[in-house]
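Revision sheet: structure tokens.
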Amino acid sequence: MRGTSTLRRGLTVGLALLAGAMSPPASAQPTAELTGVYETKGGELAVIQASNESFVYYSSSFPQGESVGLCECLLGLREKKSPTEWKLRGTDSPADWTLRIESKKLTLQGDGSGCCGAGWPGADSFARKSPKTPQLCKVKAKRAYFHALDEANTQRKAFVVEGDTVEVYLPATEPALVPARFKGPKKTTAGLLKLEDLDCQEQASTPTKG
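Predicted:
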């Protein structure tokens, strides 16, 4: 009987070790869909998430002495440290930023260099409840190529064609390139698209399921 008990304990330990070995690491586990526009008093956080690439656009105002400081930050996903932590970087911001993902809120952390005025507090949080959907735009160019978030905004091979519908975050500043994604039959592609290639009609913002 002692031999049988030892054998059972050995099998239990072996199965536990095998299950642990077969479990994907934290960085490989899927992340919940975050695409949407999250708002707080004086700030807005837009997430455009896709299979190949993801973007975060952060805009806010904050007290700066007797005046008001501003942030306008376009950040791209550099690394998913885990399902709850993204490392971000932008061309205007040389240092890494961190997006912390919790069940009830998103928190953006960084030193603000390059895209925030002096005195930015270093973190901003947004409730995940009922984010707005991105703007829906129609492609009006024969081909609209996606561009990378680098200093040259390098044109990529991926493109959308006239008549395609894309989801876009359109900042109030209306820059020449805007973060967008296209949901195809097999995968979702994100990148920067030329605003002049898009027809963005006004639409009522609809809360997404969050």
